[in-house]
Amino acid sequence: MNTTADTTATPARRPQHKPNGGYLFLPHSLSRGAFLKWLRRTHAWFGLWGASLGLLFGFTGILLNHRDVMKIPIGRMEPREIQLALPDPRPADPKALAAWLGQTLSVDTRHARIRREPARTLTWHDQPVQQPASWQINIRNPQHLLSADYWEGNAFVTVKQSDANLLQTLNNLHKGTGMGVGWVLLIDTLAGGLILLSLTGTLLWTRLHGSRLAAAGLGFGSLTLATFFILQAIGG
Questions:
Q1: Residues 6+ apart with CB under 8 A from 112
Q2: Which string of b and e fits 44-72 if b means at least 16 CB within 10 Å?
Q3: What residues are paired with 146 via a beta bridge?
Q4: What is this structure's pTM?
Q5: In what side-by-side order are the strands of the sheet with 77-85?
Q6: Longest dimension (CA), the chain
Q7: d(CA 232, CA 42)
Q8: 162 within 8 A of 138, measured Cβ to Cβ
Q9: How does pLDDT run across 55-81, given as a tens digit for each residue?
Q10: CA torsion sign, 80 to 86 to 92 to 95?
Q11: Using one digit for the tens of pLDDT, what is the confidence trace for 165-190?
């Protein structure tokens, strides 16, 4: 006698979604649709905009971070000093001296920083001494630093120039040394892009598998370490 065994169909298992695998900082209503697409595109385009500059500033940031403690002796300036005899008649004021230096040394002095210290009376070995007025002229760009010092009455001016190697030039670009308004505004866009990337990156924390407690610990842990070292430096 044939018997037919009753078979119970087992439904196919559906993939289980981890409850902690979504966009943890976005409300459910914003985790789909047009807002999410806009958020991803904004994150991607701002990342592309700052990619090349980010490489430059990341590399030079490491060098600058080690300029005092754990020094990396790579970037350097090579100083030189000369004394130039002044023409006759001598320059009448610091601007005229800057113009003469520009012609003599073939440098652009249009953005030179000029400072004039007035004459004053100093005490030297309990005797009053009259110190003449002095002029200081500084010209800076990422590759060169030129400074001129002149004491009124002298027949010469002392000129010091420091030339940067490639890595020091990159460091000066990082700091904006001798750069114009255009460069400063360009770097402002990079800084703003990094802020936006931080915010959108946090929101787009795409399905990171792990508990929310671990996520909070990671974020607050880095912030706590940074705060600790800052307070240690300030108090030390």
A1: 98, 137, 138, 139
A2: eebbeebeebbeebeebeebbeeeeeeee
A3: 139, 161
A4: 0.54
A5: 77-85, 156-164, 144-151, 134-140, 113-117
A6: 134
A7: 37
A8: no
A9: 778 888 887 877 777 777 776 777 888
A10: negative
A11: 888 888 888 888 777 788 888 888 88
